[in-house]
Design brief:
This protein is mainly alpha-helical. Helix content is about 65%, strand content about 5%. About 5% of the residues have low confidence.
Length: about 450
């Protein structure tokens, strides 16, 4: 014996999101593929170094110390050439060769000590500031995510796997924009400028010959950055999709195992990582050739090779920053963490006045069509109806997970939109059909959220 639970066409039953919907999606594996241009569609713009430094402003003292060490370290390299020139010159005067030679040899030791100290300071302080920036951005991003309304999480653009990827991967990618890699670039620029000035001071004819190749190096680096920017945009989506597939498989591991689809998910995960892997191998091969040629041309320009490794990391950080900063700028329709709104001690009276509602992701489907009822304090009210008729929706509106399309929801005669969401929810106990437990004890789960 049995009973008919739902009746309707395939599309109607899916739109109701009832039992039929659950059964269909239990056998359907969501395609985690996103369009390569999805970042552009989301309005994500590549950030720049100054915006990243703006977010690192609370740690400016640490970064200033690191940058100062970069400037000093950059001046040391050209100074080596001056000291070396003095050593060569001292050989022309045999009378003072011994004393002069000892002095300039000591200067080499002094320069080595200064260089070692500045290298330590720039690496430590820039790295320290970058780690603090990572921690701050993770905290701000997570707080921003928690403050979003439920409509935000209904969107496929904000799937659990994508959000986890933002926190776990994109935020740390920002670190490479201001850590020791940036200090290497600054030190190289200072060293190059000081070196060119010294070269023109001691011999402008030869200096012109050397400076002539700099535009070629600059053009090559600019071309490389342009190519890398496109690759990192695509790789960012591939990593995001692989994280989404992994999250989907882990969340529904029982279904995956029941349908013996472990290999399907494993293959999809590997497929998303295959393109970034091949790009990384190709890039490492090209970089190897580039570094080999660069060192073969002149050993003295070795710092330029170290600095060039910064630009691929910077492009990665720029795109990650664009994604993270775009998320931080998104304002929720219902701010869950706001301090605004009245903080009333509620007795439990609930009134719905001609409430109309449709979910943000399905605005064309009206779930509640003018619902009105009143529940007094201490009164038990049962909402009865088939799956998808709006029973859970009513509870979501009382919790103010969403705002109504029309009508009013009143708690103790107060429009719920005038009340503070956090304070209001702290007075409501909800036992959902499928409660989600956190990774802690039963006791901790029961008191979770209580202050």
């Amino acid at each position: 014996a049995g009973e008919v639970v739902e009746v309707g066409t395939h599309e109607e039953l899916l739109s109701n999101k009832g039992l039929y919907y659950d059964l269909v999606h239990a056998q359907t594996f969501t395609d985690a593929v996103d369009d390569v241009n999805e970042l552009k569609a989301e309005g994500v713009q590549k950030t720049n170094l100054f915006e990243i430094l703006g977010y690192a402003a609370p740690h400016w003292k640490t970064i200033v110390v690191g940058l100062t060490a970069c400037v000093i370290g950059g001046l040391v390299y050209p100074t080596y050439s001056v000291v070396f020139m003095q050593v060569i010159t001292s050989f022309s005067n045999t009378a003072t060769l011994l004393s002069t030679g000892h002095f300039w040899a000591l200067m080499f030791l002094v320069l080595a000590a200064i260089q070692g100290s500045t290298m330590f300071m720039q690496t430590f302080f820039m790295g320290y500031g970058a780690e603090n920036l990572t921690m701050d951005l993770r905290s701000k991003l997570f707080s921003n995510i928690l403050s979003q309304d439920m409509g935000y999480f209904d969107s496929s653009l904000h799937a659990c796997g994508k959000i986890c990827t933002r926190l776990a991967t994109d935020v740390p990618n920002l670190r490479s924009a201001i850590d020791f890699r940036l200090s290497t670039v600054i030190m190289t620029c200072i060293s190059m400028i000081a070196g060119i000035v010294l070269a023109f001071y001691y011999g402008w004819q030869m200096a012109l010959l050397v400076v002539g190749i700099l535009p070629l190096l600059g053009f090559g680096q600019a071309l490389r950055v342009r190519v890398m920017s496109g690759k990192h945009r695509k790789n960012a989506k591939d990593f995001e999709d692989s994280g989404k597939v992994a999250m989907e498989a882990i969340e529904h591991v029982r279904t995956v195992q029941a349908l013996t689809k472990e290999e399907v998910f494993h293959q999809k995960f590997c497929d998303y990582l295959d393109a970034p892997h091949r790009d990384a191998l190709r890039e490492s091969f090209i970089q190897g050739i580039a570094y080999g040629v660069m060192y073969a041309i002149t050993i003295s320009s070795s710092t330029l090779g170290f600095a060039s490794s910064y630009f691929p990391e910077y492009m990665k950080a720029a795109f990650a920053g664009g994604i993270i900063f775009n998320m931080l700028k998104q304002k929720p329709a219902i701010d869950n963490l706001t301090h605004d709104g009245k903080k009333e001690n509620l007795s439990g009276a609930v009134t719905f006045k001609n409430v109309k509602f449709s979910y943000p992701e399905r605005p064309q489907i009206e779930v509640l069509k003018g619902l009105s009822f009143t529940a007094k304090p201490g009164e038990t009210l049962a909402l009865v109806g088939p799956s998808g008729c709006g029973k859970s929706t009513v509870v979501s509106l009382i919790e103010r997970f969403y705002d109504v399309k029309a009508g009013q929801v009143l708690l103790d005669s107060h429009d719920i939109r005038t009340l503070n969401p956090y304070h209001t929810r702290s007075q409501i106990a909800i036992v959902s059909q499928e409660p989600i437990l956190f990774d802690c004890s039963i006791s901790d789960n029961i008191v979770y959220g209580l202050e």
